Amino acid sequence: MKDSRPTEDSAAIRRRRICPDCGGRFTTFERVQLRELTVLKRSGRRVPFDRDKLARSVEVALRKRPVDPERIERLVSGLVRRLESMGESEITSETIGELVMESLKQLDDVAYVRFASVYRNFREAKDFEAVLGELEPRPGEGGDGEDPAAPARRRPNLADD
User: 16: which strand partners?
Assistant: First the structure.
């Protein structure tokens, strides 16, 4: 038995299969690959682009963040599509890193800072200050008459009940 359908963002075909011998269920994802990509590393080495490595990097930055796995998959698929549609078969690791940071900045500030700290090789606290300065305040986070130096109000914790 087989069930096939496009994923939510139509970037892949999701297939569910059942093994006729053992009854185990398997899910696979098939993606269209527009072109073979090569990554030009800072060291000058060239390596094949690895979608899974990109996905792992994004997932590490988003670990324990309240972001739905579907959104993470859409972000990674969108990044891969952008890279494939650039028209180049060779892409620098810097280009990939900047695109990831741009996407994470839109999705989750904490993940953005985490990724930036590794990507830009932070050495001291002032490096974090520079990146935090790049973030725009969200509604209700400063810029609206609140004193940013005032202690944060404690949010109720449901575990306290």
Answer: 3, 27
Residue 75, SS3? helix
Comparing 3-7, 8-12, 117-121, the range with the smallest average pLDDT is 8-12
| Dihedral Cα 31, 33, 39, 45, nearest 10 deg | 100
pLDDT at 19: 86
Q: Which residue has the higher pLDDT, 33 or 59?
A: 59
Q: How crowded is residue 125: how many other Cβ atoms within 10 Å of its Cβ?
A: 7
pTM: 0.60
| pLDDT for the residue 1 | 54
DSSP assignment, residue 161?
A: -
- What's the CA gap between 150 and 142, in Å, rounded? 10
**Coarse DSSP helix, strand, coil percentages of the chain, rounded to the nearest 5 percent:** 40, 15, 40
Q: How far apart are CA 46 and CA 38, in angstroms?
A: 6
Half-sphere exposure of residue 17: CA atoms within 13 angstroms, side-chain side = 10
CB 128 within 8 A of CB 122: yes
Number of alpha helices (DSSP H) and beta strands (DSSP E) in the chain: 5, 6
47 phi and psi angles, rounded to 5 deg: -135, 150
